[in-house]
Amino acid sequence: MTMEATRYDDGSITYPGHPRGPGGSEPVETIDLSEYTAEIVTWTTSTATPPGVREPNHLAIVEFDVEGESVRAIGQLTTGDVETGDEVRPVYVDELRDPGAGIREPESQAWDGYRFEPV
Amino acid sequence: MGRVAIIGASMTQFGQREGEWIQDLLAEAGIECLEDAGVDADDVEHLYVSNMASGEFEGQTGVPNALAHDLDAMPAYTQRIDQTSSSGGAGIYAAWQSVASGASDMTMLVGGEKMTHKTTGEATDVIASLTHPAEYKHGVTLPSFAGLTARHYLERFDAPRESLGKVAVKNHKNGVDNPHAQFQTEVDLETVLESPIVADPLRLYDFCPITDGSAALMLCPESIAKEYADEYAVITGIDGATDTHVVHEREDPTVMGGVVESGKGAYEMSGYGPDDIDVAELHDMFTILEFLQMEGLGFAEQGEAWKRVEEGHTERDGELPINTSGGLKSKGHPLGASGVAQGVEIYEQLVGEAGPRQVDADVGLCCNVGGFGNCVITTIMEAAQ
Question: What is the ipTM of this complex?
């Protein structure tokens, strides 16, 4: 399992990837963000969660530095005991929420992924 | 392109409308709007319905045609406009286009949503279904985006938490004088700041409620507006814009590109600027959104909207009254109706029908936000000269 970001022909990186990147740039390769650590940009603890989502749900927007190029991601945190600026690493989880409990068709997307754990 | 006038408006009671469903709510607002404008249903050429999710909420699709039948407005052309929470603003844009282009000489827009039969979690999930799969699988909701952004804003701009609470206090105070508002009660700052946490640092009173309701506007060419109304409003500027679907990919989490771009377009079309606006309705689904829209629309410098709120600048008797209707915060947020209801409030302010909420206004603006700034419509209206 990888946390797959996409690099485009202008050097920019996004997570998740898109068929076209900033300025219409084309994807050239994927990068596994799970091999990097990131810094918390901001975080929250959500206490009113939808069906199938853990409660409370600790979430963060984090920023990776991939060879000088920054790329942000959003994801669950392993704990709510964090501060802005903390360093975190991705930790694999095979099911981030119950695929059958919400409105989205379970087969339409993946449900595994990475939580962020303080280093 | 000819100028487009608004000659009538209506709004149902917003709140929990037990036993009434989307067709009932749309028909109620539609009939009242026809009466307010003095227009026969036979004369409606285009009939637009702003609605995000009647299929998901109650299993009822095809609502524009259902409304045309209920109003006996056949053979009017009908269309549903879904742009999530900005469906209402997008409906104003579509209705404006239909008249400005000459395709229709009489267009009625009705926005509505039926939500309160669902639990808060279920309703939150319907709304969160607009998110990217990479967001949705983590349980990201619109309120959690608000919590993430509010923390970043407060930390980065050294803004006091109380300033967000003051938005809620102000909008509840305004809602007291709106007989259609879901909440017509004041709240004090202490109550806001001690209410249960929903998405830290935001609490219950930083969020709008889940709401049933409908609102409507009647549009026609200004050349025939006088046949229907002595007082009317003219849409002088309108534009819509998008920002990224994946919210964390935005360069600056405190800048909503859709607000900035749609605002620029509306200002340019109207010839007005931020200093010319006398009254504004902003999409305060969460208190932090009022700050971001004030800054995106040029009512405050970046990172300084909280100071304007602290100074009382946005109170009803302030320099720029914001959300005189009570906003989504107090009036309620039936998704597809909200942008239309913003238009209703600005229209009523401009034609002098806002009752105890009335302010001195010749030019008004409304900004309707879909997703977390994913889609935005900004509309500027002026009182007919």
Answer: 0.98
